[in-house]
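thought: fold this chain, then report.
action: predict
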Amino acid sequence: MRVDDLTRRFVSGHGRYCANTTFAWWQVVFYTVLLSTLLLILAYRWDVSLCLFTLYVSFWYFCAALFRGAAVVVSLAGRGEKKISPAEMLAIPDSGLPVYTILVPLYKEANIADKIVSRIEMLDYPKEKLDVKLLLEEDDEATISVLELCRLPSYFSRMVIPDCQPKTKPRACNFGLEEARGEYCVIYDAEDRPEPDQLRKAVALFRRLPGNYACVQAKLNYYNPKQNLLTRLFTIEYSTTFDLLLPGLEIMNIPIPLGGTSNHFRTEILRRLGGWDPFNVTEDCELGIRIYSKGYKTCLLDSTTWEEANSRLWNWIRQRSRWVKGFMRTHLAHMRHPLRTLRGLGLWGAFGFYMCVGASSFMMIINVIYWIVGIFYSALIVHGVLNGQSLHGMIRKTAMEGYEGI
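observation:
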């Protein structure tokens, strides 16, 4: 695999967090022994094994749900997101605003690439102090051709990323970070519609906060919530996550897994952290954990960026699968050296990391398994009822018939 120098530098300096290796040798041994033990117990007494396994899964599922519920309650009791008043924004004149870098990674988005230009132009920020970098992959000729035909404003620049592996959004962002001129920087996706005053709010908040705040996360939501049932469910999920869960995690001093866009950073601190993991498909989540482990902080900004929710089932499955994969790899990467992770995050931070990342991916996988089991079990009950058996009789028979005890 051909790898560029910037990616090699990240692996060399931050290899312990990097997802270029999924499992350490001891993790392979541990999970192999664990799986083998479970299979042996299952072969010996499958009924008791399934009962104990279900109890174990239910315990951690309940703990993760309780933890998230606690974060929501804490958020409602005292809002974690930071609010910036119009007067506070206007207190900073245009001459006092810093250069702001906007990174826009684009790949195979020729149909919407030109729209990001008009949306960024709508931002209420001095255009001469914007440093917009359109990050294009070398092999994406269609998107490159569309942007070559566009008359880009002078503060826009096209960066063509060398055709190397891995071909990921975080790798492209690292190239943009390398050339960033701004005191602060932010990532926007091609379809994003940030509120016009978001950059001004971020600057005002950064200047209000202590210097150890590395990141300000704007809220994310969808502009097409009523398109179909899937987009409605997506909107509920994003509303509860960014309006309730993440502000609660901030109040509880828990590592915050960042959203995939509208992350505002102090550029110098982000460079010190090494930027994004080019091998991680949920690089935002991993960076949020790394920010916390290095002693920096993240907070939520009361400003929203609007995105387009997936309206097609197969696209939703692909996106959700990528999230599960990324969360799992983030968990495994940071747990390759558990004692180092514990020292970096602290006991409370490590517990929060496990609940937010490890348990979240665990819940998403378990949901699918138990949905399938639940549908199968329900089908058996319906079949029994249609064949003259009583519901009470089937449940009692399933639980007691042929059971000889442990």
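thought: worth noting. The first helix runs from residue 5 to 14.
final: tokens above.
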